[in-house]
């Protein structure tokens, strides 16, 4: 599973498993109490794996797994690496505000242009919004890059559970 994708801030993957989804879900459920390196939470066919509070920092990733049944002998695992949902929501809010301001300044610039007034200030603010958006993107990329080792640890943990599920 490649984690090095430079475009996606929240890498996704799929894995076809040759075992039923309930046994894999039970294996993850059993690890809640038998290990302390990760916090494993299960809700229906969703599994959330994250680091304990004392090991977390602002950019700490978590792994969301959805394990769907294909038939009684196989299942499909959908995985999503991402930051804490609060951090992701904050970033999306900032992106929404920047996009909204960009559109508002564009409308204001168009109105001033139609009225034959100066619109240099509005265009300058639009350029500033572009710079802020690029800065937000690079901040997210830096956060992702600083968490690659943690993403690999989450991925290795998931793979160890899946390998145990495949073993007879």
TrEMBL record:
Keywords: Membrane, Transmembrane, Transmembrane helix. The chain crosses the membrane at residues 87-111, 123-142. It comes from the Bacteria. This is GTP-binding protein. It comes from Flavivirga algicola. The lineage of its organism: Bacteria, Pseudomonadati, Bacteroidota, Flavobacteriia, Flavobacteriales.
């Amino acid at each position: 599973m490649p984690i090095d994708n430079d475009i996606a801030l929240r890498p996704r993957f799929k894995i076809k498993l040759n075992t039923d989804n309930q046994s894999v879900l039970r294996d993850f459920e059993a690890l809640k109490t038998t290990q302390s390196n990760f916090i494993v939470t299960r809700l229906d066919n969703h599994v959330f794996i994250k680091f304990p509070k004392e090991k977390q920092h602002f950019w700490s990733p978590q792994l969301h797994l959805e394990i769907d049944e294909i038939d009684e002998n196989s299942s499909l695992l959908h995985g999503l690496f991402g930051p804490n949902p609060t951090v992701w929501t904050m970033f999306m809010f900032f992106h929404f505000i920047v996009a909204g301001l960009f559109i508002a300044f564009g409308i204001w610039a168009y109105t001033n242009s139609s009225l034959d007034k100066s619109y240099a200030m509005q265009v300058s603010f639009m350029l500033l919004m572009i710079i802020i958006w690029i800065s937000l993107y690079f901040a997210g990329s830096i956060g992702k890059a600083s968490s690659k080792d943690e993403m690999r640890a989450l991925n290795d943990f998931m793979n160890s559970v899946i390998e145990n599920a495949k073993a007879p």
